[in-house]
Amino acid sequence: MMACHAARAVCVALPLPQAAASTAGALPRLRAAVATFGAAAALATLLATSLATLLATTAVPAHAGQVCRDEPLSAAEVVKSMELAKKTYEALEASGARVALVARAGQDLSKYRQTYSHIGIVLRDHPAGRWTVVHELNACGTASSDLYNEGIGNFFLTDLYRYEARILVPGPELQARLVQVMAGRAPRRLHEPRYNMLSYVYSTRYQNSNQWVLELLASAGAAPGQVETRLEAQAWLKAQRYDPATVEIPAAVRLGARMFRANVAFDDHPFDRRMAGHIDTVNADALLRFVQARDPQARVLSAE
Q1: pTM of the model
Q2: Which structural domain, as residue segments, surrounds residue 91?
Q3: Which of 44, 77, 201, 237 could form a disulfide with 242 if both were Cys (CB 3.0 to 4.6 A apart)?
Q4: What are the E-state strand segments in 152-252?
Q5: CA of 137: how far to CAs of 33, 59, 60, in Å?
Q6: Angle, to 10 degrees, between the axis of helix 40-55 and the axis of helix 26-36?
Q7: What is the C-alpha to C-alpha distance for residues 246 and 272, in angstroms, rounded to an integer?
Q8: 183-226 pLDDT, tens per residue?
Q9: What is the bridge-based pairing of β-strands 4-5 and 61-63?
């Protein structure tokens, strides 16, 4: 099944566990070229025109909570995205890591005192290819999500607000556990397809993309066998005193979002907190802080 990456990106995302069919004979060749990241600027410029044409022929897009947009990325945006992808790939190669978290900035979240909008788990030795990002994406205009395997290039081929990435490399012990968890059934078992961009951190009714990552980290951080379900993941997070970093959203904004956005709901939040405008959801910045606080051997890298 063909699905598109992010709000304005290329139709090459791979839903787990099936691989997507190619859009045309040229697309696999373009993807292979992107994956090599040879001379970044020259390669990105060469690909930009072809990719911009391909981007205009996409199906229903999948994204991580961004506003749906129909127009494709421009050639200049493709070039900048590919340059960021190359820098991220090189940072991962130099890190010596087996697995890491990679965050991108797809929206301006400064009014909520946040920087990054979306996190994926990137694996060095993945069956789909070296440094494959596994993440949850929302089908644009719907309240559903799926899991996707994508190369670093595809991960950044989206409507970015800022062309920078944050990479968090866990310590060796957490890396080993996370690789083990990602190789099993946990990614599917801990995925909830009912998507809510502002899902409550301690509810299993919905899930947002960063919540899926957080609950997988709970499975990796807990003792083997302790976290097998979302309820168990959330119980472990409570025991670890996970701080979701409350977002303040006034009633008028909540009403408008619920009426006009299929992927936003508030009925999973505690009534008193919701009425006061206190929305306790899972965001990328708080997730990164949580991992750093629990794992003294974690390292933070940047690409921009």
Answers
A1: 0.81
A2: 4-303
A3: 237
A4: 162-169, 247-248
A5: 24, 14, 12
A6: 150
A7: 14
A8: 999 999 999 999 999 999 999 999 999 999 999 999 999 999 99
A9: parallel
